Amino acid sequence: MSHSVNEAAETGPSQRGAEIGVGIAMAIIAIIGIIGSLRVGIGWAAEGPRAGFFPFYISLIVLISCAFNVASAAMQAKDGGVFATWSQLVKVMQVLVPTAIYALVIPSTGIYVASALLIALFMRWFGKYNWLIVAAVAIGLPIFTFVTFEIWFLVPLPKGPFEAALGF
Amino acid sequence: MLEDVGNLFHGFAVVAQPYNLLLMVVGIVLGVIVGVLPGLGGANGIAILLPLTFSMSPTSAIIMLSCIYWGALFGGAITSILFNIPGEPWSVATTFDGYPMAQKGKAGEALTAAFTSSFVGALFAVIVITLVAPLVASFALEFGPPEIFSVYFLAFCSFVGLSKEPPFKTIASMMLGFGLGAVGLDQMTGQLRLTFGFESMLNGFDFLIAVIGLFGIGEILLTMEEGLSFRGKSAKLNMKVVLNTWAELPRYWMLSLRSCLIGCWMGISPAGATPASFMSYGIAKRISKRGRFFGTGEIEGVVAPETAAHAAGTAALLPMISLGVPGSPTAAVLLGGLLIWGLQPGPLLFTEQKDFVWGLIASMYMGNIVGLIIVLTCVPMFAAILRIPFSVIAPIILVFCAIGAYTVHNNTFDVVMMVVFGIAGYLMKKTNYPLAPMVLAIVLGDKAEESFRQSLLGSQGSFSVFWSSALVSTIMTLGLIALFWPLIQNAWTKLRGSAGEPHPAE
Amino acid sequence: MSVAKTVLTIGTAAFASGAVALSALPAQAWEPSHPIEIIVPAGTGGGADQMARAMQGIITKHNLSKQSVVVINKSGGAGGEGFLDVKNSKGNDHKLIITLSNLFTTPMATGIPFNWKDMTPVAMMALDEFVLWVNADKPYKTAKDYVDDIKSKPDNSFKMGGTGSKQEDQIITVALQKATGKKMTYIPYKGGGEVAVQLVGNHIDSSVNNPIEAVAHWRAGKLRPLCVFDSKKLDYHDKIAGDLAWDSIPTCKSAGLDVEYVMLRGYFMPPGVSPDAVAYYVDLFKKVRETPEWKKLMSDGAFNQTFMTGDEYAKWVADAEKLHEGLMKEAGFMAKTN
Q1: What CATH number has the domain bearing residue C137?
Q2: Which residues of chain B, if any, have pLDDT below 50?
């Protein structure tokens, strides 16, 4: 429904290309599944199916379905609309890239510091809040989380050098 | 029977002691918090608080813990509706219509419907427990592996064939879900499969990580693409919403009753709340006159799964106390609690520990009533969360998603997986792959496979085991009917030769 | 060498903690400075989980430790995930892991790379017993009746239910098969409680449930214990079902079924932890064992209450490993190395 606005003016990757891409990605996962199943045995032993039996046929069905999906996407008209405009994709990336980095740095920095930075980034970059409010939320929320999880419910979350320096 | 009524009133007297009432309120509030914070969840919440209860009497302890359980059940619906992030497997079906409702500015209605339905389901199940407890226990004993498999089969059958998406995309999506569910340790042979020697794959793909990614993160990416805001800003913020929704709800009494029955049945047979919620949603979608609008924010699509899930969740406590078999992970932890307090769950608990059992049953009644009042008064507050600007709430949601994903297995790799699932969810949604069948397959796939293979082990590989008794044959037949229902319906429509679509309203 | 030192420190620590109560702390006594983590290499609700959480509750209630105790489940890969975590936490004085038989069976059956020697043994808290159960409606009164019936019928006529695959229950089943000369159909379930109910519902013919998993159904007259897989009878005399107590159950060996198996419920720590920390935990566990709650837990579950530390414990574990290796090899349960 978002495509109706500004569509004529902006370009982006085609829906057809995206469909083919997703289909191929799934097919690759299916092939990995087939290889993995073959390793553990896909036969039918005396007492029922072996460990790889179900994963093998499941992967096979995924592969076949993907073939259909890719084929039907390929047969679509080339001007079947855009998947999303470039400017929309840039917006998506603006969230996705920081989130991905966030997930990747958690093991080294701990979740609290990483969360504070993520919140600060969003609020300052997208929300244009002044630094005082940004700092209040970005520092307040991790502290709240820390108290709730680590102290109250005794659920340890990943901690890094910063927490270690504070003695936790 | 008469004696039971007396016992029940005695139970009420026990529960109504001020100290126990206080514990009840504390339990509900803690439970809602636990249910809302992803990654804590009912099982974790109870496990964590269990040690605190050792100094209480068993009856007080179970009152508090079961109230945490009720609170968590209520709380699970909140994140499903507001953010499309189900915290428990049985809340997944609630997102299908609950989240679209919130997007349309009807978060208050959706929350009220969800809470009220939970209450109705739970109350119905408690009444069933009170009346037919002994019968129920012997019914549960009938369920061996083939019977359990047939129940999963029925759950799948009543749910597939529902999506409007192209069939091959639905199949690919569901099968991918089964495949992901298969990763990790194969329960039946004790072999690792599809892990390729990676340590971080040992756990497989937990449903919660997949769902937080596919639904939660995926949704944030979609929102971002469409401009930086949640579309729920216009949510009304007063208690009138509750009353207005209540005025509407009695219309769905038939739906509620059906969902209650499905829920009780699933809860007593050890299949549990998750298949109950999916099955109830699937059947409601087929039967309802507005079925084809399901998924776009129909209140019936919230009532059906919530009622069934909570009826099942409540009914599941009965096999737990009478047989010692937990119907859910949360019940498993409660069961551990019973043992630690020196109570022996089992058939004799009913005769030996009357105070305890009837106190528990009475607390089910009272706890649900207290819980309903507490959560309903908070509806405007919950709905107000959607008014927080996106640039503030989005990173907070991301942080809680990360915490939720991490706490499932205490593994930071899962947070990365969550982001990967988020990308997958965004792409799949944009390319018309339905996500619900995939999640259903991840949630129930390995259990279905397990009971299937247990059955075949028992029968020496013969398929006749799935038609070996009246019970299993009936359920399998129901499953087949459900599976081919769209075909039957299509054939029927064609026979009548109507050119256009049948008009939904009458 | 280092173990000997450990034992020595235990003595000192126990002595010290008694003497110190009124005076100042000696400088070298190790105390936890963070919350203590107990890893459970199994899901919530299982036997190991229950024991860890019970200990958490006891330690909290009796204020036995200045720091809180946190229980974390890491059940992936038949518990392999939990063991790998401990193995990789070299020198972490605040991490413990409670073990079940998967300490031995998981690396053997799955090839996940760890061994108990990668960790520091702390203490054996108890041994869990196994009992051969049948449905009370069946005519078998003794283990001999049951075994005779098995022997008189073809292979795979009897279904044995158990927890997990290639773990303790299946190992016992394999040993039974060896003793009777007949194959049984082994059906794995997720939890012991489920197995007991499947037996009550007559979906399987027998089980080797732990006492605590099946006792409620025994008392209700639904299940019958035939024999216990230990070298001696269980040491609990309270009447449970009618005139029968745990010590009324004969050993399997005396019933002509020469199979013995007990399961370790013990603690390990990561490699390279300080001996003082180990001594602290041994002392802590000794205090736990003195509490009424612990004693109740032990008698409810009819546990074998052997307590071992140091060298003695390490030797027991080494023997148990050999035993498991033999059984697993014989059963063909070892992971293929390819």
Answers
A1: 3.40.190.10
A2: 232, 499-506
